[in-house]
Amino acid sequence: MMTSATIVNTKGGLIKDETGGTADFFAVGSGQVDPSKADAPGLVYDMGTGDYVVYLCSALGYTEAQVRAIAGRPVDCSGYAKVTELDLNYPSFTVNMRQGGVVETMRTVTNVGEAMSSYGLVVATPFGVKVTVEPRKLEFSSVGETKSFKVRFPIANASNWRFSGGFLQWASEKGVTVRSPIAVALYP
Fold first, then answer.
1. Which neighbouring-strand residues pair with 155?
2. Which end of the chain is more exposed for a tag (fewer CB within 10 A), N or C?
3. Digitized pLDDT (tens) for each residue of the chain, 188 residues in all
4. Cis peptide before 135, with omega less than 30 degrees from 0?
5. Where is 143: in which H helix or E strand?
6. Using the 8-state DSSP alphabet, how is residue 129 labeled?
7. Kind and range of the H or E element at 118?
8. InterPro entries recorded for this chain (predicted)?
9. Are 109 and 178 in contact (CB under 8 A)?
């Protein structure tokens, strides 16, 4: 639902916030759910329960009892390497940066659309960073096929900003769009 949401309202205008003004990136988030597009998303970012268990244990520091209550099964948190939100195969990007830094992550998408399809890249770059993606085109020959891509976020301009937003979007030749929000925070 996240990747097929729209960032405009039902009349094609900008989404409003709780005050009636134009919503900023953080108020819009993934956007307004579009049930017809959510039914045929084209590409999905798969994650399993195990991925969340690792994240809860290693990144958020949940106890085994807390994770067991969420997962519904016994969990041993002792053997997991430290992961961050960027390590999850999640359809959005939350990037915490230090001045002069570069953040890098990988994502994998699964084709749930047409067998023979290709997706080109569109990026709305958040202010203050560059966004580079490799590869810039994803080509699929079968349903269920997966492709991975690397995303780099080097700081481009750290002058007077703290928070910024944009998106990364894969667009197929058939008009299917798969949009992932990008939220960037700069810390001194």
1. 129
2. C
3. 778 777 777 888 888 888 988 887 777 778 778 787 788 899 999 998 888 899 999 889 899 999 999 999 999 998 888 888 888 999 999 888 876 678 999 999 999 999 999 999 999 988 888 899 999 999 999 999 999 999 999 887 766 667 788 899 999 999 999 999 998 888 76
4. yes
5. none
6. B
7. strand 117-124
8. Peptidase_S8/S53_dom_sf (IPR036852), SBT (IPR045051), Subtilisin-like_FN3 (IPR041469)
9. yes
DSSP string, 147-188: EEEEEEEEBS--SS-SEEEEEEEEEETTS-EEEEEEEEEEE-
Secondary structure, 3-state, 30-89:
CCECCHHHHCCCCEECCCCHHHHHHHHHHHCCCCHHHHHHHHCCCCCCCCCCCCCHHHCC
Q: Locate 130 and state its tokens.
A: 């560059």
- Which amino acid is located at 109 in the chain? V
Radius of gyration of the chain (CA): 18
Q: What angle do CA 58, 52, 79 make, to 5 degrees?
A: 40
Give whole-number Cα distances, 150 to 22, 28, 98, in Å: 32, 25, 20
